[in-house]
Amino acid sequence: MKSPPMRRLYHGWRVVAAAFLIALFGWGLGFYGPGIYLMALEERHGWPGAEISFAITAYYLAGAMAMACGVTLLTLIRQPWQVYAAFAVMSLGWAAMSGAAINVIVAPWFESRRGLAVSLALNGASAGGVVIAPLIILLMGRLGFCAALWCAAILMLAVVLPTVGLVLRPKRAEEHDRADASTSEQPYASKEAPLANSASWRPVMALDDGRFLTIAIPFALGLTAQVGFLTHQVAYLSPLLGAVAAGSAVSLTTSAAIVGRVAMGAVVDRIDRRAAACANFHLQVIALGILISATSVPMLYLGCALFGLGVGNMISLPGLIVQQEFPKGDFARVVSAVVAVNQLTFAFGPALLGVLRQVEGTYATPLLVCLAMQALAAGIVVVPRLSRVRSRS
What we know:
Largest sheet: none
Number of strands: 0
Distance between the termini: 60 Å
Radius of gyration: 21 Å
Number of helices: 17
Structural class: mainly alpha
Shape: globular
């Protein structure tokens, strides 16, 4: 008997793998890297840490402004060459805003398993903290600051450019994920997503769109708290645990982010995504409460692990909620707008916690502010869901 022909791997999963590598370097060099760079520059030049720490906030703001300018330019183009100019401007903000890019790369290839696909791709972001950031530190110790960054840049180009060239392409009409053809595996989102209409969503509609506001605002709050805490995590833990143990706690947080995103990806296509986001915000509320009140080393590690479980989902859930509630044709525009708002807001997270720490003298108040922002976000994100429940009763 002839064996049945082997089923070809759906190209969408190759796209997920490529997006994983893009996120690996994007977050490794662009998110986890700045804190390392500033520490190295402080040691190399003897500059005060407080004097240059605001560079991280400026970095995120510059990324947000570049992306916003590029998106705006797209609405004004009249000639083909202007498309290249607009995307050149957008590229300046890509490294700092690659969450939108990953969503846009992966989303067209999947419907019923989009949540799983996006979650797996964005695990590259967490892996950037596990792999790329320690690699940069190792190279700096072995080769020095300049040589280490040159090596990291060359490695990124050697990996990402061929991957993009060989894997990323438009989806063909005949290509479909197997799960999309099965009605038994349709996602929860398909029951809620609205029908497309002729009036496409535009950024000027944002302030009048409750769906958009109840995605952008809570995740802006949550990410401000999250980025602020992650930036100051070592500074908070080092006096309590010691420098080496604090580094281990950061690694635990980053590793937990991978576990949390994989776990969420396995179920998010079958549950209401706003409810999932609410639970994720509450998880970090609990984690911050533990960290604030912890009186022992195990409790500090527990708080870091629980906080880490929610870290990755904070990036992937906004795009998945957008898929659940907006027409497919509006997905890229809405996701980009949400990420731009989040980026502009969480850019102030590191500076906010730094100022509060300087004023109060401890991290108790800064962490309480982070906890309050997460709790408020948990309430806002489920407002449309509660409204639907009341209207049905």
